[in-house]
């Protein structure tokens, strides 16, 4: 696993290391350069060393040939595969590492494949894994379930699709939203804005929050803002949100903390005194925020244990375990 240094990140972004250091310290950087750096961070999965987390997981296999080489000389019957759309996403990295830690002392080898959300690429990977007779597959798929089953045959797989208990291995994000809604009710927050990028992952969280308020018959002003992931679009959405008088801003993922802080510093804006900020994920990066972010924390180790239990036993459980993988981790960003 190659370490991504600041020099490599700067080269990837096409900027000097001095400019990169200024950006990471939230100092003013030209907008076009800032956008290039943001894109490089997303593409490489770079995380600051002081965040105390792994910096990046290199893509496991870019081409079919790479998979064949990786299998060569290894006991195929003890191989597991982790197939994801973007292996460098922070949440995907963290889950991969949790699974890797869990099986470190066992006979299993965990292999990584990145599909980039391309259906044909995914089919090629799954066909290769099926031919190699891997022991099981952890899969973030863009294919229909029947297509996956047709390719993998009898090879067991666990789906990582987010939703509301729809399939083995799914994260019940509705349950996470309900927990967050209960917390916001305790804080008497009624005007809520949610900033996200992925509509599929957003829906269940938002429905869970709304359900909590409706059950208590409490008023709620709730709006979702979706951006395309670029720095400029994120800035535009933040400008809209911060022009309102709201109780709380929910960030879909912890990484959004970085552009939020940069936006506030670059335009000399202070977070309104009574506005709270919460992110979803609970990675170590949130502890670097000032003030430290309150998060809806996801227990990746418990989730990895659940996945492996389902994947490696002879018969699968047909429903998700009742255990919730979510908890609230309080920081200093909630009023």
From TrEMBL:
Residues 3-63 form the HTH lacI-type domain. It holds the Pfam family Peripla_BP_3. Transmembrane segments: none annotated. GO terms for molecular function: DNA-binding transcription factor activity; transcription cis-regulatory region binding. Keywords: DNA-binding, Transcription, Transcription regulation. InterPro entries: HTH_LacI (IPR000843), LacI/GalR-like_sensor (IPR046335), Lambda_DNA-bd_dom_sf (IPR010982), Peripla_BP_I (IPR028082). SUPFAM superfamilies: lambda repressor-like DNA-binding domains (SSF47413), Periplasmic binding protein-like I (SSF53822). The keyword Ribosomal protein does not apply. This is LacI family DNA-binding transcriptional regulator. The lineage of its organism: Bacteria, Bacillati, Bacillota, Erysipelotrichia, Erysipelotrichales.
């Amino acid at each position: 696993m190659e370490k991504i240094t600041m020099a490599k990140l700067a080269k990837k972004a096409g900027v000097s290391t001095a400019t990169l250091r200024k950006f990471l310290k939230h100092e003013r950087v030209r907008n076009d350069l800032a956008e290039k750096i943001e894109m490089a961070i997303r593409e490489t999965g770079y995380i600051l060393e002081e965040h105390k987390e792994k910096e990046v997981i290199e893509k496991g296999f870019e081409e079919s040939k790479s998979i064949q080489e990786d299998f060569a000389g290894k006991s195929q019957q003890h191989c597991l595969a982790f197939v994801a759309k973007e292996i460098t996403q922070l949440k995907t990295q963290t889950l991969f590492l949790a699974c890797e830690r869990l099986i470190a002392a066992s006979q299993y080898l965990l292999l990584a494949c990145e599909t980039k959300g391309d259906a044909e690429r995914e089919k090629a990977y799954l066909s290769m894994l099926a031919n190699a007779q891997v022991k099981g597959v952890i899969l973030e798929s863009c294919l229909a379930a029947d297509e996956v089953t047709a390719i993998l045959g009898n090879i067991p797989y666990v789906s990582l699709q987010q939703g509301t208990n729809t399939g083995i291995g799914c994260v019940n994000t509705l349950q996470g939203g309900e927990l967050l809604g209960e917390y916001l009710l305790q804080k008497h927050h009624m005007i809520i804005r949610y900033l996200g990028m992925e509509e599929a992952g957003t829906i269940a969280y938002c429905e869970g929050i709304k359900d909590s308020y409706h059950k208590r018959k409490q008023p709620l002003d709730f709006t979702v803002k979706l951006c395309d992931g670029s720095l400029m679009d994120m800035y535009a959405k933040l400008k809209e949100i911060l022009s309102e008088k709201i109780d709380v801003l929910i960030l879909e993922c912890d990484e959004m903390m970085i552009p939020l802080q940069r936006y506030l510093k670059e335009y000399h804006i202070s977070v309104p005194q009574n506005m709270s900020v919460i992110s979803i994920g609970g990675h170590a990066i949130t502890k670097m925020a000032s003030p430290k972010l309150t998060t809806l924390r996801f227990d990746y180790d418990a989730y990895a244990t659940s996945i492996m239990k389902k994947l490696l036993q002879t018969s699968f459980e047909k429903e998700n375990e009742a255990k919730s993988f979510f908890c609230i981790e309080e920081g200093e960003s909630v009023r």
